UniProtKB/TrEMBL annotation:
Family, per entry: Belongs to the membrane fusion protein (MFP) (TC 8.A.1) family.
Listed name of the protein: RND family efflux transporter, MFP subunit
Domain Multidrug resistance protein MdtA-like barrel-sandwich hybrid as annotated: residue spans: 66-202
Coiled coil, from the record: none
Family matches, as PANTHER family: ACRA/E-RELATED COMPONENT OF DRUG EFFLUX TRANSPORTER, MULTIDRUG RESISTANCE PROTEIN MEXA
Amino acid sequence: MKRFTSKKNVLVLFLTTMLSLHSCNKTEQNTQDSPQTIEAEVLPLQIVNAQIDQSFRTNLQGKTNIELRPQISGYIDKIYVDEGAYVQSGQPIFRINATVYREQKNTALASLEMARSQLATAELELDKYKVLSNKKVVADFQHQKAKTAYQNAKASVQQQQTLVASADVNIGFAVIKAPVNGYIGRIPNRLGALVGPTDARPLNTLSQAFSG
């Protein structure tokens, strides 16, 4: 009878111990799961007006876009305006070095003076043979020959005058001006760049402003 009682006591002790361990584990788990208190500063909120700046990339087009292209070949030695500047009709924008064309004009002027001198000589010869032919001193063939030489000298003068005028035109093309009022676009070429009439891209695109 005593042995049975002892076993019963051991069983009770075992169950009590297990319940105690389970209770401790549950208490520890509840302690770990409970939220911790964190101290934080409280800031009052106020309704105020705020300005937000935003920028967007865009491409503005005028009512008329005019491509500016050089009429002669040469190096850019002057840019009169900046990108985005407003220019008026006739205002200079670019200047191409025109040294070559000035030399061409000087050569044409020298040749023109020589042609004029030859024309004066041919005119004297024509007058001389005209008088001699009328007096039957020389054959009419000589008179016609002198007349042909005079016509050739006259044509040579006109040719050299054309070359001088052409050189003047090229020198005038050295300064590229705005054909209308408007805004300068992006300038891809800078000082010293070699440009010409056959270039794929223009020197600049001038955007004519909208009229108010």
